[in-house]
C-alpha cells in the first residue's frame, strides 16, 4: 500500500554538505570501537558508506538493496531486492543509510541484523528510535533532496513567486 507524502518543506543538500555530515558521522563511529565492515543500504546509503569506509579505513563493504519509495515520494511496501550473503546477527558490522524517515526500512534491516550498529546521516523524528547514531535531524514534514537527485536550474525571485 502506498502512503502519499505531501512534505510541504524541502531541504536540499549539496555535495559539500553531505560530505561534511558523512565525515561527522565517521568521527562519531570511530570513537571507542572497531568494525568488521560496512553494509550499505542501497541506493541511498552508497555514497555515505563510501565516505565512511574511506575515513574508517574499512575495505569490506557489502550491500542490502531495498526499495520502499517510488519516484513521486510515496512510500510502498518494503522490497528487499538483494540481501547479504552471510549475515550472522550483524555483531561488529556498521549499517549505513542516507536517512531514516518513518523507520520502516531500518526496522526491516534490524530484523535481519539485530546486533549491527545502524547509522544514518539524516534522521526524521519518527525514525530516530530505529537508529543508533545520526548527525542531522530534520522535521517529519520535510523532504530531503540529495545531491544525486537534483540539478541546478533557474529559480524565480521571491517577489515574483509572491505575485504568483
Ligand atoms: O525510514 P523510511 O521511511 O523507510 O525511509 C528511508 C529510506 O527511504 C529511502 O530509500 P528508498 O527506498 O527511497 O530507495 P533508494 O535508497 O534507492 O532511494 C532512503 O534512502 C532510506 O533507505
Ligand atoms: O530523497 C529522499 N528524501 C527523503 O526525505 C526521504 N524520505 C524517505 N525517502 C526519502 N528519500
Ligand atoms: Mg534507501
Automatic annotation (TrEMBL):
Residue positions binding xanthine: 101, 144
Catalysed reactions, as listed in the record: XMP + diphosphate = xanthine + 5-phospho-alpha-D-ribose 1-diphosphate; GMP + diphosphate = guanine + 5-phospho-alpha-D-ribose 1-diphosphate; IMP + diphosphate = hypoxanthine + 5-phospho-alpha-D-ribose 1-diphosphate
Entry keyword S-adenosyl-L-methionine: no
GO biological process: GMP salvage; purine ribonucleoside salvage; XMP salvage
Sequence positions that bind Mg(2+): 98
Compartment annotation: Cell membrane
GO cellular component: plasma membrane
Root EC class: transferase
Annotated positions binding guanine: 101, 144
Topological relation to the membrane, as annotated: Peripheral membrane protein
Keywords, sorted A to Z: Cell membrane, Glycosyltransferase, Magnesium, Membrane, Metal-binding, Purine salvage, Transferase
Pathway where this protein functions: Purine metabolism; GMP biosynthesis via salvage pathway; GMP from guanine: step 1/1; Purine metabolism; XMP biosynthesis via salvage pathway; XMP from xanthine: step 1/1
Domain Phosphoribosyltransferase: 14-154
Gene Ontology MF annotations: guanine phosphoribosyltransferase activity; hypoxanthine phosphoribosyltransferase activity; magnesium ion binding; xanthine phosphoribosyltransferase activity
Binding sites annotated in the UniProt record for GMP: 101-105, 143-144
Chief place where the protein resides: membrane
Enzyme Commission number: 2.4.2.22
Known cofactor(s): Mg(2+)
CDD domains assigned to the protein according to its UniProt record, in alphabetical order: PRTases_typeI (cd06223)
Residues involved in 5-phospho-alpha-D-ribose 1-diphosphate binding: 43-44, 97-105
Superkingdom assignment: Bacteria
Family: Belongs to the purine/pyrimidine phosphoribosyltransferase family. XGPT subfamily.
Subunit structure, interactors included: Homotetramer.
Matches recorded under HAMAP family: XGPRT
Function: Purine salvage pathway enzyme that catalyzes the transfer of the ribosyl-5-phosphate group from 5-phospho-alpha-D-ribose 1-diphosphate (PRPP) to the N9 position of the 6-oxopurines guanine and xanthine to form the corresponding ribonucleotides GMP (guanosine 5'-monophosphate) and XMP (xanthosine 5'-monophosphate), with the release of PPi. To a lesser extent, also acts on hypoxanthine.
Protein name per the record: Xanthine-guanine phosphoribosyltransferase
Species assigned in the record: Elstera litoralis
Taxonomic lineage of the native organism: Bacteria, Pseudomonadati, Pseudomonadota, Alphaproteobacteria, Rhodospirillales
Record gene name: gpt
Amino acid at each position: 500500500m502506498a502512503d502519499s507524502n505531501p512534505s510541504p518543506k524541502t531541504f536540499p543538500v549539496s555535495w559539500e554538505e553531505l560530505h561534511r555530515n558523512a565525515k561527522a558521522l565517521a568521527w562519531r563511529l570511530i570513537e571507542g570501537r572497531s568494525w568488521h565492515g560496512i553494509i550499505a543500504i542501497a541506493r541511498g546509503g552508497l555514497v555515505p558508506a563510501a565516505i565512511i569506509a574511506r575515513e574508517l579505513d574499512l575495505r569490506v563493504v557489502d550491500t542490502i538493496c531495498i526499495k520502499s519509495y517510488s519516484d513521486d515520494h510515496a512510500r510502498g511496501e518494503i522490497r528487499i531486492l538483494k540481501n547479504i550473503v552471510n549475515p550472522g546477527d550483524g555483531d561488529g558490522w556498521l549499517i549505513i543509510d542516507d536517512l531514516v524517515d518513518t523507520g520502516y526500512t531500518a526496522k526491516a534491516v534490524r530484523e535481519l541484523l539485530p546486533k549491527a550498529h545502524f547509522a544514518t546521516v539524516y534522521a526524521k523524528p519518527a525514525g530516530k528510535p530505529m537508529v543508533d547514531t545520526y548527525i542531522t535531524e530534520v522535521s517529519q514534514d520535510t523532504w530531503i533532496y540529495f545531491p544525486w537527485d537534483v540539478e541546478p536550474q533557474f529559480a524565480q525571485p521571491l517577489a515574483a513567486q509572491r505575485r504568483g
